[in-house]
Prior knowledge:
alpha/beta
Amino acid sequence: xxxxxxxxxxxxxxxxxxxxxxxxxxxxxxxxxxxxxxxxxxxxxxxxxxxxxxxxxxxxxxxxxxxxxxxxxxxxxxxxxxxxxxxxxxxxxxxxxxxxxxxxxxxxxxxxxxxxxxxxxxxxxxxxxxxxxxxxxxxxxxxxxxxxxxxxxxxxxxxxxxxxxxxxxxxxxxxxxxxx
Length: 180
């Protein structure tokens, strides 16, 4: 009977040790990753929609509407740029020799893959934030989310998600927040 109690106690302690090890392992990663020098290169901005009306009677509704419009405009601008780039590549491919057409076809495929990844990122971010848009400008990526208050750990989580999905470095990402 004594051996059975010791075995149960030993298994319980080992289980507790595994759970605590996992906890400390993962919480330590978050703490060290937010203090890593590369994270200091990441930019986090608070922005506000430029078209916010200042009516006092329906101010909250107007701000919500203008914020939604702001995100819709960002998505529309991004989609228009992608469409223009697709059209340009298709025109190039139609008027090119075989070697250039093959290269252009690969670029077109890469652009399509990138668009799908951006769409998936936005869906993941939309599950946590009210609105989210991912755009690219001159090789840098802007992630705009709507949140009451964006903590540093949340920004790191967003950046890690974007870096893993799009294979980027922290200095290539700027996170913008729009207050709810």
